[in-house]
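Protocol step 4 of 5: obtain the predicted structure for the target chain.
Materials: sequence only (see below). No template structures provided, no constraints applied. The aim of this step is simply to have a reference model before the mutagenesis design in step 5. Sequence pasted as it appears in the construct record:
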Amino acid sequence: MLRRIRVHPLLLAVALGVVSTGCSLPYLADTAAHHLALLAHRRPLAEVIADPATPAPLREQLRSVEEVRAFARTLGMRVDDNYAAYVDVGREYVTHNLSACPPDRFQPYTWRFPFVGAVPYKGYFRLTWARREEQRLRDAGYETYLRGVPAYSTLGWLADPLLSTMVGADPFDLADTLFHELTHATCFIKGQVPFDETLATFVAERATLAFAAARTAPDSPTVARLERGYAEAHRFEDLVHQLYGQLDTLYRDAAADVAARREQIYADFRARLHDPASGITSPGYQRFADPPLNNARLLAYHRYHAGAAELAALLAREGGIKPMLARLAAHKGELKEAPLARIRTWLREG
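Step 4 output (structure tokens):
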């Protein structure tokens, strides 16, 4: 599997039409209208599968979705009616996400939304609106990162359909996406988006490997291929975390020549990334170092991969994904301030 660099943004419950700080009524109304328009065009998976006009590759992918949903239930995920219907979006991405950050520190610009609290990105169905907000933030001195996204979650408030933008060539890539989104629907900690995204990414990888092993065999070529893909992803994550740490130290030192030193750190990162010894060959990872590389782009990636060590220890302690998710969901109140610190406390307490 060629693991994509991707994000899985939350719809942030704005489809409920609730006014929130930092989000105008036109934005909320437009987001809700676009989401409801997608729902109006959904078709049951069985209907799309039975339709003679459905291309054979898509039909096979849709057939695998029910297997993923069934497997997710065995892992204790909240499946309900999520991904039981299909929507042809008719474009490459369903929404675009905007992130922003000052150029001299890792402090994300945040927006506030109902039910989920402060969020370090904002999703737009209208690209023109996203670009307008991006320009406003740039004019205010922020670095920005605007990217298309193939999927989002309503966190269980509504039944999420399977979107055409989520379906690619690899059924296990789709499985990873579905497990990620279903983890959001199962356990979401308000105001802790970095933790929520790390949790969903962590669980999705392990669920996908377990699903592939059950569908094929633990020692099948498919599982081996997926393991190689995830291993490369972790090597890339290590490089990005090193870059993040170097820049964070630079910013905290508040040196007079921050801009010049940052460019040198970027150049060193590019050299390490393109070094054959890195073991990173996938074009998607290689392109990550292409300009513009800035704080907003780094944070957009970093927030999905910070805290995996604590989750791995918790997974081993609890004995599997199902009991781990059950514990996290049952103790959400304890996790709302500093979830990783709380998990470390659990691990010390034994």
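Step 4 remarks: Strands lie at 43-44, 85-87, 95-101, 111-113, 117-119, 122-124, 143-149, 162-163. The CA atoms of residues 3 and 229 lie 6 Å apart.
Proceed to step 5.
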